[in-house]
Write a structure and sequence with these properties.
The chain is of the alpha/beta class. It folds into two domains: 2-140, Rossmann fold (3-Layer(aba) Sandwich); 163-436, pyruvate-formate lyase- activating enzyme (Alpha-Beta Horseshoe). It is built from 19 helices and 14 strands. It has a six-stranded parallel sheet with strand order 2-1-3-4-5-6, with helices on both faces. A six-stranded parallel sheet has the order 7-10-11-12-13-14, with helices on one face. Strands 8-9 form a two-stranded antiparallel sheet. The longest helix is centred in the last third of the chain and has 27 residues, at 412-438. The chain is globular. It binds cobalamin and iron/sulfur cluster (SF4). Iron/sulfur cluster is lined by residues 173, 175-177, 180, 182-183, 217-218, 248, 272.
Amino acid sequence: MKIVFITPASGMRRFALYRLGNNLYGHPNSITGPLILGHILKNAGHEVEVYEELYDDLPFEKIAGADVYCLYTMTSSAPRAYFLADRIHREFRARVLIGGIHASALPEEAAEHADQVIVGEGESVILDVVEGRVTDQIVRAECTKDLDSIPFPDYSLLKTRCEAANVMSTRGCPFRCSFCTTSRMFHPYRKRSVESVIQELRYYKKLGFKYMNFEDDNFTADRERAKEICRRMIAENLVFRETFFFGRTDLAGDEEMLELLQRAHLSRVLVGIESLNQASLDLINKHQKISDIRRCAAALSRHKIRLIASLVLGIDTDCAEDIRNGVQFAKSINAYQLQPAVMTPFPGTPVYDQLEKQNRMLTHEWSLFDMLNVTFIPNHLSPWALQKEFFRAVRQFYSFLSSFKIMRIFGLQYGLRRLGLCFLMHLGMPFAYGIAYVGKNTHYYKLKHMEKKPEIAANPT
Ligand code: B12
Ligand code: SF4
């Protein structure tokens, strides 16, 4: 059979300007699920192709003629996946399977557009579903306990641009922050053997990848294991030009690990700082102290590991001043990048259940659920005021002056990337504000004019 996997990208992510910003932010890379599931199907003799919409337009005519189309969904890309599923049904009359993190949280919704929906990690069932041995419309997949038994992502299947190989050395996270989707989708927390990870890195070196990311939700959760991976990378010359990873502030407590991370070129890390208000950290179940944040920032700076500081904007116990403090802090420590993430109630999380129960959801238009848009009624701010705090955070952090600081600290290449990002951010901001004033029927316009309806904004029971 011929099988085509598609990872869709939501509306604005397909615009040229956004694609340019994406290239400046990091190196084009791929979600690994479709490449792993595709590998399983290829090993069984099927012909498989994988397309990502984020970096290139989907060549719709070229993908005609397959027997099965497999669509990945995250929440913001689900409407696009449903649109493509309907179009494939209509024009190609072929079978459509839908999976991924959003479909796993709301399978009945996805089933309106698919012949079958797979809930959870697809490895254990994909072959039986594609070959017709499992026929339920909603298939609940058991997660694979032994991650070493899963084949590596097969990059030869990927037909769209990719400069960095993504490695998942673990699945899930031992923590349970209240807004987090991945610690719930990938549950329980599981680790691959160091040997299996090293084998995968050898394969990417052979393929000629210059960049590699550890996309584990919390790469340093098991410090001894992370150290062992770095040691082996250094010893076997499996070091890439740059490796991005996700960490927590607790990584700062281990000098040996910091040194190994730096030597193995794990030189760009996204850390969830979330808020500089302890009550907020406690409310979201972060298990993190303000002192941990400060210690982490200092340690990363000492080891020249570039920090992407992630803040959650709109936690119930935070007011505008807390958000501004967070941004100010990120500036003061010369964080390499800022990810101001508007609190987003992703289906399947306790935050979503709470806001639904309290009748505080403003919309269920999933394309807006990408951490850039306010989709609920905040506690201390009006929805538009929170949206403006997001714009303000971006504008303040990505000032032109900051690019020269980054250039001085991290070098010309990173300074220029930052400068490019600043240009794009400053270009995009007036556009977003403009929409809020004149773009009737747009989300920003609705948020802005909601301010005039205090009974909605001020009554989050
Ligand atoms: C790599 C990555 C990216 C990359 C690549 C994305 C791309 N090319 O589209 C980059 C950095 C560009 C990115 C961007 C974004 N991302 Co992202 N990303 C990830 C990350 C870290 C790893 C993905 C991965 O490889 N997972 C591991 C594999 C094993 O899992 P999987 O791919 O989901 O596949 C399994 C199952 O889902 C299922 N499956 C998958 N596909 C299919 C298809 C079918 C048919 C079936 C049956 C089953 C199935 O089986 C697979 C094997 O077990 C995840 C976090 C995570 N742990 O998943 C976030 C994550 C998916 N991203 C997220 C978000 C929010 C975004 C952005 C919106 C961020 C932003 N503000 O711009 C954008 C949107 C991009 C888009 N396409 O529209 C969220 C989504 C939350 C949600 N519920 O919607 C996640 C979960 C992180 C988080 N914050 O919680 N992302
Ligand atoms: S530490 Fe990060 S990955 Fe782990 S539960 Fe919290 S937000 Fe999710």
